Automatic annotation (TrEMBL):
Keyword list, A-Z: Aminoacyl-tRNA synthetase, ATP-binding, Cytoplasm, Ligase, Nucleotide-binding, Protein biosynthesis
The Aminoacyl-transfer RNA synthetases class-II family profile domain, residue ranges: 134-452
Known EC number: 6.1.1.22
Molecular functions per Gene Ontology: asparagine-tRNA ligase activity; ATP binding; nucleic acid binding
Protein name: Asparagine--tRNA ligase
HAMAP family in UniProt: Asn_tRNA_synth
Organism: Myxacorys almedinensis A
GO cellular component, one term: cytoplasm
Lineage, highest ranks first: Bacteria, Bacillati, Cyanobacteriota, Cyanophyceae, Leptolyngbyales
Keyword Repeat assigned: no
Amino acid sequence: MARRIVELLRTGQPDESVTIQGWVRTKREQKGFSFIEVNDGSSMAGLQVVINQTVPGYEEAIKRLSTGASVEVSGVLVPSLGKGQRIEVKADSVAVFGEADPETYPLQKKRHSFEFLREIGHLRSRTNTLGAVFRVRNACATAIHQFFQDQGFLWVHTPVLTASDCEGAGEMFAVTSLNLKQVPMTAQKEVDYSKDFFGKPTYLTVSGQLEAEIMAMAFSNVYTFGPTFRAENSNTSRHLAEFWMVEPEMAFCDLEGDMDLAEAFLKHIFKQVMATCPEDMEFFNARIDNSVLATAENIINTEFERLTYTDAIAQLQNAGKTFEYPVEWGLDLQSEHERYLAEELFKKPTIVTDYPTEIKAFYMRLSDDEQTVRAMDILVPKIGEIIGGSQREERLDVLERRIRQQGLDPADYWWYLDLRRYGTVPHAGFGLGFERLVQFMTGMGNIRDVIPFPRAPLSVEF
Ligand code: 4AD
Ligand code: MG
């Protein structure tokens, strides 16, 4: 049975017989023997293999082994004389599965730009950086489930197809029920896709929150973790058309409880990833952004800043600098404003609360003055908004009024209003943009490089 390279690097002992499988990163031919470095994706470092010319089929194997070729090696572990590695494999047998023609294989031993790598999305996961990103992404997902499971939250699966626009922003992708069985493949691009889903307008979900609220009214504490979709045509380094969101929803909880949970949650994820992926995090710090480790430290050990939107506006007006977008009570914060607060002023995650009613969604709880709602956004350096959440409106009459005010039809939300009719409680939740988290943690400049298959305007290749 083949062993994972990460385990061998950590605990492998000289004289152990091992088999490894993976892809060749580098090959160095010497007189009478060759070195190859084999990587199986389990860690940044590969395992060095020394192949002596006495190994059966040596000449042929060495000819076929080049960067990118797939290989299985059996042999024994021996102490390594090479720098930076404790052990290596002395090969007894080498089997080449597939060659990678050096004339055409695009990933050669040099640094490629991320723009170039996006053009070869099917191969880029084999690079050091994208490998580290996807291992950290996995570690974040694991830490998220662990955090909620440890506290008794139920993971609920909310639908991708929906009839309601949770955010009321109209940024939905419409779904068609067109049956393409009768249409030849070659003609499928010409078809009229405007027909809706079996006669009822249906969309890809922008958020699982409304359904999570349903489940929280039965299980108290729940969370969702799944893909969400936004038909916003923003070609920025922080927006995707398809992204993953984590949305906890807690019954018997107010905005303070919501903020406390969000802060503990982010701290837990960073702590966990630092413990499970130290090499990858050090790599990001050395090669991508030299503030990555300091940022992790800052998240884990510093209390987040908390201030109201009204105070944030005052801070921005007194910043002594001009922003591209106007700063005025009642206008939404732009990412330059968010970054000023978190990056320059407070230099740590900053929670802004109590936004103007006018600029927020219908479900947020109205404050007594009716000018603001009990909303909170968590802003972080370099990214801006990473979490958006609120206490929800639990009063039937107020919610009905807010739905009408926003030009929506209460009849479409009868089931949501029922939750306020039967056993309503104060409740709250938030949504974490999963890719923004991974981007923030790794220091990667573009959100398209932290999701294996980015979907943004004009980027859907396969
Ligand atoms: O602030 P948003 O729109 O909030 C909601 O959807 C609420 N229903 C969440 C809740 O209370 N349960 O989105 C939440 C987060 C944002 O803070 C941001 O991190 C991320 O989702 N996000 C995006 N990430 C990538 N690409 C996009 N186009 C995003 N839009 C939002
Ligand atoms: Mg938001």
